[in-house]
Please model this.
Amino acid sequence: MERQNRQAGSADPLSLPVIDTDTVVIGAGPVGLFQAFQLGLLGLSTHVIDVLPEIGGQCVALYPDKPIYDIPGVPLCTGRELAQQLLAQARPFLPADDSGRINNLHLSDQVASVSQRADGGFAVATVHGLNVRCKAVFIAAGAGAFVPRTLNVPGLNDATHVPSNVHHYLPAPHALDNTTASWANQAVIVAGGGDEALSAIIALDQVPTDARPALLTLLHRRDQFQAEPALEAQVRELMAQGRVQLALGMPSGASLENGRVTALQVLGPDEQTRTLPLDQLLIRQGLSPKLGPLTGWGMTLERKQVSVSPDTFESSIPGIYAVGDINTYPGKIRLLVCGFHEATLAAHAAAAALRPDQPQHLQYTTTSALLHQRLGLI
Amino acid sequence: MERQNRQAGSADPLSLPVIDTDTVVIGAGPVGLFQAFQLGLLGLSTHVIDVLPEIGGQCVALYPDKPIYDIPGVPLCTGRELAQQLLAQARPFLPADDSGRINNLHLSDQVASVSQRADGGFAVATVHGLNVRCKAVFIAAGAGAFVPRTLNVPGLNDATHVPSNVHHYLPAPHALDNTTASWANQAVIVAGGGDEALSAIIALDQVPTDARPALLTLLHRRDQFQAEPALEAQVRELMAQGRVQLALGMPSGASLENGRVTALQVLGPDEQTRTLPLDQLLIRQGLSPKLGPLTGWGMTLERKQVSVSPDTFESSIPGIYAVGDINTYPGKIRLLVCGFHEATLAAHAAAAALRPDQPQHLQYTTTSALLHQRLGLI
Model:
């Protein structure tokens, strides 16, 4: 089972109240967001859960600013723009409260288990203690949960206990500015040599003086980066100014104390092992998709994809649907346009299964007063 | 067989040169346009044929300005906007020449026959004399060909001979301005009582004085219209000014002379039959979908839909695909989002069938240099 790292300072929320809803969508990528929209149009409530800290899935995590040309009716957009448009479209069903929080969208969390309930529904539990009771589950998990690559060091990638000062995502600026979560005057090591690591170093250097780490170290195995030239130039300049240290080598061990890492042992290019003391360790080595816990739910899989029926996109477990890149069926092509269709048919199939007594009369958003009402237009 | 009315003054183009292309798409609605885009991405050339004088199919013909809310990533658009965006997206494969003409988009024409050729390809012939040789045909004809409703009068709806001065579409303003096609000083009857008829009357009243018909008559069965109040108010004002005559009654006969209608016999509400002489008759009674000639091509149909396989969207005739509202398969929902998926899979299936020796390696518009080249980006 994959374990998601906690945000600094957050307590274990083991006793959250149980949420009751019609459906759970696993994945807030483009297809998961459109799944929520289609479910909403059909009058089914939903909670969306995603392991990443942002909506948009792979599109935003891997190529947020790259152009996409093949979304029907959208000659050109970036992954980030597409995700924002899909969220705007699903807004009637993923409403934000006054503080901007969307209460049925759960980011930075990962579904740990889905179990069948006696009433025919499902209990969905997350690694952060969320418990959701629902009637149908939609897996829109793309290539799987995109989880950060960690360091291959004993004590750091033990799934049952991640040290509290090891991070894979940069805390939000307001968190760093906040005294309790602040990294002010601390020794911070950023591990990695790609865009993610270099942009994190730059962001940490730019926090206001009273919140700035005292020592910023970039740890990478060699003095060459795989990053945008502009980012590299900025970091080289920070090194030249003495604002950032570069430590070269491969981490070989970690000193642990009271559930925290206090130092890393690093084997340098000179074959010497050095000890780097630290207060916070930010591992920025990119994301890697993991199929994660769903391999254990008993669904029929084929080459790590969930086998589905092409008329309902239901898996071999009735009530669990799979849409987008995670599924497979004859003719499957891994394109977003196909995932949108799959989400549409899956929503209609679920609505028919959950409301067998109601006529399944197709309504159009152009003309249906009921759909206009659900969209909040009237 | 449906017969499409000719534009005023156009000669019978019976000896047009044969066009050779990879594919023919029947229908320039949203799904047909996206079909052309997907075929282009896969390196297959195409000619698109539609019975309507404009792109956009039913979306533009029936509800051009009504909002659509369920196109993925497009929270709100009108039918006309969607069609324009899809044309813009398909532009690399439907390029306009200097005069703005798209040489592989054939509007106001209708496919009359599709016949298998000895080489395994198809010969597509239209009612206007277009002959296209291709390797695969994509039927994206929606509810069928949207053909104008005509008057139920002997001599007017004879499929083998439509009088040359009977029209169902208003000629373009530049055609009316042009001396050869001009309706200047002529007696023009517009038949109908809906938006289409009233807006045609207004447009004809507004042509410059030297091109204006001498007599403009609106022919409708009663003195009540089913039209936008603003349109009705404008036409009532034109009547009050004596610029437009209103003739009430049901046409019961037509006088024909040298392939032209010279007068209509109209049975009035007073049970009297009157004769209305005319130079041009414009019938504006809306559009009605007709499945048309494709019922005779030998494909398996199910309740007037083309039965297709859901992994290729191929019909029972190899090489003829059907996508969008015209097809049926288990789970089918008649939504645009589904048609876009179907067009995508059909394009890939056709490419695989036409190029069996080439590896079918899925490429993404975000990253593929080959696709960027085909899109004209590099």
